[in-house]
């Protein structure tokens, strides 16, 4: 209600138009403010992103579970392309139920790293090795939809809720070396990942959204609250819903099984 009065007040100042249109004008007015706030946050993030980004070495020890155990280390990880992040559509629905639709796109993104892995998947599939890993993602589209709350006092603050998203990607290309310390196998596994990862992401976008949205919502709200440092840590990953993660892994196993090179994998 406070919000509506404030809006009417400003519209009153800015526009002495016919009364009938005021409600519409309020909506447009807030839609504009919110769209600009979002664009501002995105521009702010983009201006701070280095290209390339060197990411600190990480040794992730997986908590012992039936899903996966062991450790995974990445060294000299370099990301490039994230700076190309652009909002291609920001749509704000100000009439109840208020909704926010934001589409983000990244034309091309590369990850180059050294890795050292010793993991046991599903208590039976060993994945080990070390070497270089290069991954390229083409045309990532990230369509988000959420509710939102805009507070005006004590200062203007936007926060989102009930986030869901649709992720689509044109291709994910892998160039892995040293998997099970075998170059021929590394070539095969790279091809299989090329063929399966992008279609898997596109096919199971809804489940990915279920798994990752709570975690992303937190990060986005941190960005809106002007937090200087976005907290991304290994513990964040432990907050992921294990049931959803398991369901996704099983679905991925199924898509692997129908790949013509499946026999050469295990
Ligand atoms: C932007 O997103 C809204 C909500 O999903 C959709 O209705 C609209 O068609 C989109 N516009 C463009 C230009 O993609
Ligand atoms: C994705 O869906 C298509 C069409 O339904 C199907 O042919 C393909 O096998 C699926 N791929 C994966 C990896 O889930």
Automatic annotation (TrEMBL):
The keyword Kinase does not apply. Gene3D superfamilies: Haemolymph juvenile hormone binding protein. Keywords: Signal. Residues 1-16 form the signal peptide. InterPro entries: Haemolymph_juvenile_hormone-bd, To_sf. GO terms for cellular component: extracellular space. Pfam families: JHBP. This is Uncharacterized protein. It comes from Henosepilachna vigintioctopunctata.
